Amino acid sequence: MAPLALLAAALSTLEAGAFMAAAPGRSRVTVAAADMSCDCAVIGAGPAGSVIAWLLAERGGLEVALVDPNLDKPWPNNYGVWESEFDALHAMMPELKLKDCVDHTWPVTDCFFETDERRTTLDSPYCRVHRGRLQETLRTRSDAVGVRRIQAKVRGDAASWCANIVDGIRHDAAGSTLEFDDGRTLRATSVVDCTGFESSLTSRQGTGTGPPPTFQVAYGIYGLVEEASLAPYDADAMLLFDYRDDHLPVKERDASPSFMYAMPLDLDEATGLRTVSRGVIRERHVATSMA
């Protein structure tokens, strides 16, 4: 889960001293024409942006503004992570009590890389992170350390990328000024772009001749299935990769590789409802995604 993998990177950046409120020779910059000012503006209130904002305020002592046009919108992604990695994050940021945000752990992880039924089982536990619980935890902690929440969209068009300057942001030697669609402005000494691969704040075109950036797109569903129909999947294992494509027409097998992952869950874990038993068949709730 890429967003949560960024949390450790954010902590390392902070500990390296990349953002210091009282660095020698550096003073806070406030432009009179701006409606608001802060040390650091974090654009994008997903998992990465939310934890970076909290870290900079809690451990860096900075005045931080978290900017997003949909601050209170529930996160749509289904987040999973290796248990060992999440344990490490928990140890790095114990204040967040991240382990309390785990709602299911599978003891092993299954993969299918061949076109036949051979299964590769990894002896590595995998966790599902409760997105609502994580979102609420980060919001509560950020509010407690004074992170300013600004519900606004930076003015600009992704098509207007040009040397990191778009309609809604201007950089100078002392910082940056952001202009929002509603006419307000924000002055920040530093800006952290956490808006994802479709960002309109950052140029990706540059002057080089390298390939364009790559990214992964996932399509997810929740489904009620009978346990017998999970075969050949193990209901007690996280299915991380299923690359088998022998069910596809031959002409589609040479397309860009794609895989499915699945998280088998009991009904009470996924929806709060009691698990339903019908004879020897138990219904399962499965979160699947095709990437």
List the helices and strands and how they pair.
Layout: H1 2-15, E1 36-43, H2 47-58, E2 64-67, E3 79-82, H3 83-92, E4 102-106, E5 108-112, E6 120-122, E7 126-129, H4 131-144, E8 148-150, E9 169-172, E10 175-179, E11 185-193, E12 219-226, E13 237-242, E14 260-265, H5 267-271, E15 277-278, E16 281-290
Helix pairs in contact: 1-2, 2-4
Explain what this protein looks like in three dimensions.
The chain folds into two domains: 2-87 and 133-193, 3-Layer(bba) Sandwich (FAD/NAD(P)-binding domain), CATH 3.50.50; 98-129 and 216-290, no CATH class. A hairpin with a 2-residue loop joins β9 and β10 (175-179). The chain is an alpha+beta fold. 19% of the residues lie in helices and 30% in strands. The strands form three sheets. Strands 5, 6, 12, 13, 14, 15 and 16 form a seven-stranded mixed β-sheet that branches. It is built from five helices and 16 strands. It holds the Pfam family Lycopene_cycl. Keywords: Signal. This is Lycopene beta-cyclase.
What is the number of E strands? Answer: 16
Number of domains: 2
Oligomer: single chain
| C-alpha-based Rg, rounded | 22 Å
Through-space gap between termini: 13 Å
Instruction: Give the overall form.
Output: elongated
Biggest sheet overview: 7 strands, mixed
The run of helices and strands is HEHEEHEEEEHEEEEEEEHEE
CATH hierarchy class name of the largest domain:
Alpha Beta
Give the structural class: alpha+beta
CATH architecture of the largest domain: 3-Layer(bba) Sandwich
CATH H-tier superfamily of the largest domain: FAD/NAD(P)-binding domain
The total count of helices amounts to: 5
Share in β-strands: 25-35%
What is the percent of helical residues?
A: 10-25%
Signal peptide: 1-16
Protein name: Lycopene beta-cyclase
Keywords: Signal
InterPro entries: FAD/NAD-bd_sf (IPR036188)
